[in-house]
C-alpha cells in the first residue's frame, strides 16, 4: 500500500483453549483440556460477536463505496481490481495488495495516525481504527478469527464481559501503537483479537484448579501466542497493536473471567457449617486486584505520554524490534 500503511493483519488462527479445539496457522488440530463445569452454570447464547462481524463487514462496504476507485484514481484508470464492481472495485494491487481501499480513504474515515490523534486532537481514532480494515483479505482473516475465538468465549462468559474485553483491548492496542509508530496508518481489529487471546491465557491461569490437562493447555496456548507475535515482526504489520491488545486482554481476563471455586454454586444451599464460605480462592482475589491496578496505571501512563507528544521509542531504544526486525530482504521504515 502507499505510505507503507500498517495493516493489523491478524494471522492468529486460534480458538478457545480449555473448551474446544483450536486451529493454529497451519490449521492443525489442537486438543483442548477438560473443564469441570457445574450443571448450574449459565451457558449463554452468542449474539454480540456475530454483531461485531456484521458491523465490520458493513463498515468495509461503506468504506469501499466512499473510496470509489474508478473515480478517485485517475492515474491508475483501467487498473482498478475487479472493475465490474463499479465504485466498489479495489485499488490497484501495487497500492493495496490486500484488495481494499486507498490509504487516503482509510485516513479520512478514521485510520490511526499519530499526527491526527495528538496534534489535531482526534482521539476518537483510537477507537474507529479498530473497525476499519485494509482489504478484504485482512477483513476475512480477522473475522474468521473473531468467530472461532469470540463465540465460544461469549457462550461461556456472556456478552457483557467479552464485549468489554474486546473493545478495551482494541483501545489498548491503539494506544500502544500510537506511542511507537508515527509514520504510518494503522487499521484493523487485531488488537482486540489479541486481547481475547490474552484473556484466554489469564482465564486458564486464574481458574487453574478447574482444568485437567493443565500443562498441555498452557503449552499449546503459549505456542500459539508466540507464533502469532513472531509473525508480527514482519514489515507493515502493527505488532505494537497486537502487544497492547494482548496485555490489556490479559489483565482484563484476571478481572472479569474468574470462575467460582468448584462446588460453590451448589454449596449455597447447604447448611451454614457445610457451605463454602468464599466464592473465589485467595489467589483469584490477589490476581484481580493486581491486574486491575496494573491495567489502570498502564493505560493512564500511556495516554498521558501519548497526548503529551512523547515518542515511546525515546524511552525504549530497542522496542522497535518488537514490531519489525530489519533484514536484507526488507526494511522497517514504515514501522517507526
Description:
The chain is mostly helical. It has helices at residues 48-67, 69-72, 103-108, 114-119, 125-128, 136-157, 159-180, 190-206, 214-231, 239-256, 264-267, 282-307, 312-315, and strands at residues 6-7, 22-23, 29-30, 186-187. The strands form 2 sheets. The chain has a two-stranded parallel sheet. A two-stranded antiparallel ribbon has the order 2-3. The radius of gyration is 21 Å and the shape is globular.
Q: How widely separated are the two ends?
A: 16 Å
| Number of helical segments with 4 or more residues | 13
Instruction: Kindly state the percentage of residues in helix.
Output: 40-55%
What is the topology, as strand order, of the major beta sheet?
1-4
Residue ranges: pLDDT <50 for 5 or more in a row?
1-40
Radius of gyration: 21 Å
Q: N-to-C SSE series?
A: EEEHHHHHHHEHHHHHH
Largest sheet: 2 strands, parallel
Averaged pLDDT, please? Answer: 83
Beta fraction of the residues? under 5%
Q: Could you say which structural class the secondary elements and strand pairing correspond to?
A: mainly alpha
Number of strands: 4
Amino acid at each position: 500500500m502507499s505510505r507503507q500503511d500498517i495493516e493489523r493483519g491478524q494471522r492468529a488462527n486460534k480458538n478457545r483453549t480449555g473448551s474446544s479445539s483450536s486451529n493454529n496457522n497451519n490449521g492443525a488440530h489442537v486438543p483442548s483440556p477438560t473443564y469441570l463445569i457445574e450443571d448450574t452454570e449459565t451457558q449463554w447464547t452468542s449474539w454480540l460477536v456475530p454483531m461485531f462481524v456484521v458491523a465490520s463487514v458493513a463498515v468495509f462496504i461503506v468504506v469501499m463505496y466512499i473510496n470509489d476507485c474508478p473515480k478517485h484514481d485517475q492515474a491508475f484508470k483501467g487498473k482498478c481490481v475487479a472493475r465490474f464492481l463499479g465504485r466498489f472495485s479495489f485499488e490497484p494491487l501495487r497500492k493495496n495488495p490486500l484488495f481494499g481501499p486507498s490509504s487516503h480513504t482509510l485516513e479520512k474515515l478514521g485510520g490511526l495516525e499519530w499526527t491526527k490523534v495528538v496534534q489535531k486532537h482526534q482521539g476518537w481514532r483510537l477507537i474507529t481504527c479498530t473497525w476499519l480494515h485494509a482489504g478484504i483479505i485482512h477483513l476475512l482473516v480477522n473475522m474468521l478469527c473473531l468467530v472461532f475465538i469470540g463465540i465460544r468465549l461469549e457462550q461461556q462468559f456472556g456478552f457483557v464481559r467479552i464485549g468489554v474485553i474486546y473493545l478495551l483491548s482494541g483501545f489498548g492496542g491503539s494506544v500502544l501503537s500510537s506511542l511507537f509508530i508515527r509514520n504510518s496508518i494503522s487499521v484493523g481489529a487485531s488488537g482486540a483479537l489479541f486481547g481475547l487471546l490474552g484473556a484466554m491465557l489469564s482465564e486458564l491461569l486464574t481458574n487453574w484448579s478447574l482444568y485437567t490437562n493443565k500443562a498441555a493447555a498452557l503449552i499449546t496456548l503459549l505456542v500459539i501466542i508466540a507464533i502469532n507475535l513472531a509473525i508480527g515482526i514482519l514489515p507493515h504489520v502493527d505488532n505494537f497493536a497486537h502487544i497492547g491488545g494482548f496485555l490489556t486482554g490479559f489483565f482484563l481476563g484476571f478481572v472479569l473471567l474468574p470462575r467460582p471455586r468448584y462446588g460453590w454454586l451448589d454449596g449455597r444451599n447447604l447448611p451454614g457449617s457445610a457451605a463454602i464460605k468464599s466464592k473465589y480462592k485467595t489467589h483469584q482475589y490477589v490476581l484481580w486486584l493486581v491486574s486491575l491496578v496494573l491495567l489502570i496505571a498502564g493505560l493512564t501512563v500511556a495516554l498521558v505520554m501519548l497526548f503529551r507528544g512523547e515518542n515511546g521509542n525515546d524511552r525504549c531504544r530497542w522496542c522497535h524490534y518488537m514490531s519489525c526486525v530489519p533484514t536484507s530482504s526488507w526494511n522497517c521504515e514504515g514501522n517507526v
